[in-house]
Amino acid sequence: MLASYFEKHKTEIGCDEAGRGCLAGPVVAAAVILPQNFKHELLNDSKQLSEKNRNHLRAVIHEQALAYAVGIVDSKEIDEINILNASFLAMHRALDQIQHHYDSILVDGNRFKQYHDKEHHCIIKGDAKYLNIAAASILAKTYRDEMMEGIHLQYPKYLWGKNKGYPTKAHRLAIKEYGITPYHRESFKLLPDQLRLDF
Q1: pLDDT tens digit string along 130-183?
Q2: d(CA 165, CA 125)
Q3: Which of 12, 74, 102, 119 has the fewest CB atoms within 10 Å, i.e. the most exposed one?
């Protein structure tokens, strides 16, 4: 069972992002405050869960969280400020929307950009250790997947409904054959050398 808190007598908000390693689409982050007595046997790192369970938990989080929000940084902004800064910005945009009081931020990973005067703790594999980070990982993942399924309808040849913009073989072959879209991150290495586009 994941832990309910990092420090017992503080109200903590969990933060995580999804889509950092993708070739296309936004990076999406979420911030979640759960009741300190919250428990759910399925809640875990979103990568460990089926799509069905992620969607079920998203509804549970919406219903039971004390507060939650989602922040989005699109591919153009990612190209301008780089993916690491974009991940921090997405988390900050999620935190900007939170009205509920909290004392500290629990962030999945090993780096974070200071948010105002709030205390924060970076926790490697935090989405598999703390319930509020796991909840944030689920919201970030499900909201992003939903967005990618939507833009898949505009550009079905890239199979974003399945690969969600990640660098699968099929996605890279589609880039080679059809070129890039406005949703692709041009600052990323979109093709390995053996599939290089010839301009």
Answers
A1: 999 999 999 999 999 999 999 999 999 999 999 999 999 999 999 999 999 999
A2: 23
A3: 119
For residue 197, pLDDT over 70 is answered with no
| Residue 78 tokens, joined | 């990612």
pLDDT, tens digit, 9 for 90 and up, residues 79-122? 999 999 999 999 999 999 999 999 999 999 999 999 999 999 99
**Domain residue ranges in the chain:** 12-152, 156-195
Task: Please report, to the nearest 10 degrees, the dihedral formed by the alpha carbons of residues 186, 190, 194, 197 taken in order.
Answer: -40
**Directed axis angle between helix 51-64 and helix 131-152, to 10°?**
120
Phi-psi region of 128 (alpha: psi -120 to 50; beta: other; left: phi over 0): alpha
The topology under which CATH files domain 12-152 is Nucleotidyltransferase; domain 5 (3.30.420)
- What phi and psi, each to the nearest 5 degrees, are found at residue 32? -140, 130
Phi, psi at residue 119, to the nearest 5°?
-65, 140
